[in-house]
Amino acid sequence: MQAKPLQFVLGNEHDCDYLPGRSARSVFLISDRDHARNDYQTLIRQGFRRSGDLIYRPYCRECKACIPVRIPVERFRPSRKQRRTSKKNADLRVTGKPPDFNPVHFELYRRYLNARHPDGVMGESGPEDYIRFLSSEWAGTRFYEFTFGSRVVAVAVVDHLDDALSAVYTFFEPQLAKRSLGSFAILWEIQETRRLGLPFLYLGYWIGACVKMAYKNDYRPIEGHIEGRWQLINDR
After folding, report:
1. Residues 196 and 113 in one domain
2. Per-residue b/e over 61-78, b at no fewer than 16 CB within 10 Å?
């Protein structure tokens, strides 16, 4: 039987969250729950992401600034700064949790948003908004706790796919800026992807002109999905 063609719907235009003065739009997959995981695994290779159970990709008429990126983990070598970050956080323990609501995680999430994105609408999220945004029943999602003693200092939300891990979102204790917890979470995800024998860690979208996205350029080499194919966009 021939596979049913994938169907998409174009979302409404809105102000861009990353580039002031520009508008943005996304295209969304129409998918039922039974096929969502397989569709997601196919489409993430074509630059799509998920938000909750929605599978999407930016589809802006006059802008191609959002570049899907992934790290080929076997080729990754940490910089001197990244090695220092790993050493600073060697005392943390990482534990995987199911993608369920956890009040400790939620309070950390709120503190992170209030400190890092005080003007963003996400800071007004309630428990249902939070879990709807990060969790998924079909994406193999795990919430990885980074703990110091009994204190949860960071949470990395990661999707486990058949041939990759996908970093969905990370939030951490804003008072511990010297630990560079966001950077350490990515370094741990790279190590975990390699340990599982998977070739790629997907990091979402990179925008060269956006300061908030600049950190993704620190992980080298990194590949971008440009003009329909994955190609190297930086190296040592």
Report:
1. yes
2. eeeebbbbbbbebeebeb
Structure tokens at 4: 């049913």
DSSP classification of residue 46: T
In terms of pTM, does the model score above 0.90?
Answer: yes
In a shared domain, residues 226 and 194: yes
**So what's the pLDDT on residue 117?**
75
In this structure, what CATH number is given to the domain that contains residue 154? 3.40.630.30
Examine the domain organization and report whether 59 and 76 are in the same domain: no
Please confirm whether the linkage preceding 103 is cis (ω < 30° from 0).
no
Same domain assignment for residues 58 and 96: no
pLDDT at 99: 96
Q: Give residue 71's identity as a one-letter amino acid code.
A: I
Sign of CA dihedral 187, 136, 100, 113: positive
Q: In terms of C-beta density within 10 A (0-12 exposed, 13-18 middle, 19 or more buried), how is residue 202 classed?
A: buried
Structural domain for 134, as ranges: 68-234
- Residue 210 has φ and ψ, to the nearest 5°, of -110, 120
Q: What residue ranges of the chain have pLDDT lower than 70?
A: 1-3, 120-123, 235-236
Do 61 and 104 belong together in one domain?
A: no
Asked whether residue 140 falls in the same domain as residue 171, the answer is: yes
